[in-house]
Amino acid sequence: MKLTSEFSIRVATAEDAPTLAALNLACWRETYEGLLPAETFAALTLEERLDHWRGVFQTSGARVALVLDPGGEAVGFTQWRAHEFVLGGRLGRGGEICAIYLRRSAQRRGLGRRLMRLMAQEMRASGCKWASLVVLRENLPARRFYEAMGGRRFGRELSWRGVPEVAYGWRDVGRLADHQ
Ligand SMILES: CC(C)(COP(=O)(O)OP(=O)(O)OC[C@H]1O[C@@H](n2cnc3c(N)ncnc32)[C@H](O)[C@@H]1OP(=O)(O)O)[C@@H](O)C(=O)NCCC(=O)NCCS
């Protein structure tokens, strides 16, 4: 089995949009079969993902990372963004985790933990106090992962493409950054 340390993580740029689109589609197909309605699942396309990633790099502040396996193949990615938020009457800066995906072959080796820590370290360095994300309510493996990382459910149920979602948050991004 390949060790986590044999995988590298690097910042992604606009030139990586085609790689990210193909990887994103492959990860979604592995993750969401049976979780999304069949029609929605069948309608996931490379073209739509390519448009999405080109758009991401056109907006300022794209914080995207790629995970490469020991052979240099892209096997995972993350994306987060900072946003200002009114919390208890005070403006606070938080980090929203927009995506964290690994190909099935790269899962359960500790890479997800490493990626969460890295995003939280970047968030802390850019002045974010807390972190949050949303996940499909029925994506139980991912929810167990976020709970193992110290995330707590908050807020009401949301929905993505008509499918229920729940939110997780970390009040202290520093604790996630230092998570063992
Ligand atoms: C969710 C994901 C990012 C986690 O990354 P990972 O590298 O597989 O997870 P790690 O090996 O770092 O796991 C860390 C801890 O989380 C928990 N955990 C991870 N996956 C789990 C699972 N499937 N079931 C229960 N607990 C799990 C465990 O406590 C684990 O520690 P352990 O291995 O010592 O028991 C990855 O599995 C993935 O990409 N899944 C498919 C895509 C997805 O659902 N993304 C989230 C969309 S919102």
Give a short overview:
By secondary structure, the protein is an alpha+beta fold.
Task: Outline the fold blueprint.
Layout: E1 8-11, H1 17-32, H2 38-42, H3 46-58, E2 63-68, E3 74-87, E4 90-102, H4 111-125, E5 130-136, H5 140-148, E6 152-160, E7 163-170, H6 173-177
Parallel strand pairs: 4-5
Antiparallel strand pairs: 1-2, 2-3, 3-4, 5-7, 6-7
Helix pairs in contact: 1-3
This protein binds coenzyme A.
Mean pLDDT: 93
The number of distinct β-strands equals 7
CATH topology: Aminopeptidase
The amount of helix comes to: 25-40%
Q: What does the main sheet amount to?
A: 7 strands, mixed
CATH homologous superfamily classification: Gcn5-related N-acetyltransferase (GNAT)
Number of domains: 1
Instruction: Examine the secondary-structure arrangement and name the CATH architecture.
Output: 3-Layer(aba) Sandwich
- Parts with pLDDT < 50 across at least 5 consecutive residues: none
The end-to-end span amounts to 22 Å
Strand and helix order: EHHHEEEHEHEEH
Strand order of the largest sheet: 1-2-3-4-5-7-6
Number of helices: 6
Which descriptor suits the 3D outline? globular
Please report the first level of CATH classification, the CATH class: Alpha Beta
> What Rg is obtained from the alpha carbons, in whole angstroms?
16 Å
Strand content: 25-35%
Structural class: alpha+beta
The distinct bound ligands, ions and cofactors come out as: coenzyme A
